[in-house]
Amino acid sequence: MSRQIRLNAFTMNCVVHLAPGQWTAENDRSVDYLKTGHWVELARLLERGLFDSLFLGDITGIYDVAGGSPEIALRTAAQVPMNDPAPLIPLLAHATEHLGFGVTLSVSYEHPYLLARRLTTLDHLSEGRVAWNIVTSYLDSGARSLGRDALAAHDARYDRADEYLDVCYALWEGSWEDGAVVRDRTTGVYADPARIHPVQHAGEHLRTDGVFQCEPSPQRTPLLFQAGGSDRGTRFAARHAECIFVGAPTAAGLRRTVDRLREALRQEGRDPASVRIFAMFTVIVDETEALAQARHDAYRARVSYDGALALLSGWTGIDLSRYAPDDTLAYVDTNAGQSALASFSKLDPSRTWTVRDAVEFVGIGGRGGVAVGDARQVADTLQAWMDETGIDGFNLASVEMPRTFEDIVTHLVPELQRRGVYKTAYEPGTLREKLGGESARLQAPHVGAAFRHQNDGHESDLRANDNPAS
Ligand SMILES: Cc1cc2nc3c(=O)[nH]c(=O)nc-3n(C[C@H](O)[C@H](O)[C@H](O)COP(=O)(O)O)c2cc1C
């Protein structure tokens, strides 16, 4: 039987996500990102299309690498202005029943105690439908805005992130035992203090000493997503991620990334098939191939080259405005996102990219593949990418908001269902269970499961510093 294709919608709480220039079209609703009704309608549309989740990217800082200033990004709205994604989630959870919500939160600028509390709150209010996209942040402008001299070194960001995750696991899994919440109206006891444990951690980067402030949410640890593809990022993903988000413009390049990730999972002692890998992708689908092509041509004509240049320069950390458009992109290690530059250089040696090629490519859908056609053609392409690369599904970006997602729900989803490669109903349970997890909670051999309090169901005699985060 053909493998099931999973779909998430990939967007950000802003005007321009991965399609600079498109907001200027009369029918495009991207500027409505400030309105609650816009988001509620989008979430309901995605749920009608049985998407697994609305995946919200986020960045800290603005794109000021191109031209050495924020001018281009501000003028073209290239991921600025950008609102906070997290407050959307309770609103959208209330408007839907099954749709999951991926939220990007950086580990670089806030203490894990606060971030863990925010995610627990979201997991409660969505009844277990939250995923966390763990990022370490790659913009120097963000570091400076938050009072740092500069962005921390690339691999050091991941080292600190490893410790950060250990503190989060201890808070989510180890502080409150199952059964600690008694809620006994007769005795007036809400929680049993004997079953609630302070987390004591004094590590290289982080310290905490205290009881977690929140009672356990349905998933405790939210479903964990990660998206960094450098060598160090891949090791981080292999240790923590339950879902991995990758982006490469060609199937051959993507295959290399996926193979590397599955191998890293094996080395980490995890079943490589237990982690779901999603590829960034853009679909332009319509009733006929001619209609889809015409739409694609119109989109191409509207791409803001400057906006795309600002994005790609920010992702790679290289000011591409300083190069001639016909210069070839070559790989160098940078302190920003290493995998972004690799996508357009060393990842697929069969293809060379000039600066212009890469910027124009990024103008529709970022670093991911693009499929244009009628439903059968697009379904063929998605199935071919699944087979060729070994991914589990796609994070689909929009070009025209919300038309791209409307067309997917109207044309593509029924075609995938007819082929038996797409669900016809949601699975019950939390987001982790809907995505194939055996339980709402993290399970061994995932590293986070080891932080669970071992004494569930019995009188506690554990000292807090028995906790593995100590
Ligand atoms: C598909 C994809 C999506 C990403 N989305 C975000 C995001 O929303 N916010 C963010 O700060 N970083 C995002 N990143 C960047 C990564 O989290 C990471 O910081 C960056 O790729 C640098 O790490 P690397 O050198 O290991 O690739 C994304 C990366 C990829 C590949």
UniProtKB/TrEMBL annotation:
Question: InterPro entries given for it?
Answer: Diverse_substr_monoxygenases, Luciferase-like_dom, Luciferase-like_sf, NTA_MOA
Taxonomy, superkingdom: Bacteria
Q: Where is the Luciferase-like domain?
A: 37-392
Example of a GO MF term: dimethyl sulfide monooxygenase activity
Q: Does the keyword Oxidoreductase apply?
A: yes
**EC numbers:** 1.14.13.131
Q: What keywords is this UniProt entry annotated with?
A: Flavoprotein, FMN, Monooxygenase, Oxidoreductase
Q: Does the keyword Oxidoreductase apply?
A: yes
| Pfam families, sorted | Bac_luciferase
Q: Which family does it belong to?
A: Belongs to the NtaA/SnaA/DszA monooxygenase family.
Output this protein's name.
Answer: Dimethyl-sulfide monooxygenase
Q: Which organism is it from?
A: Cupriavidus pampae
Gene coding for it: dmoA_2
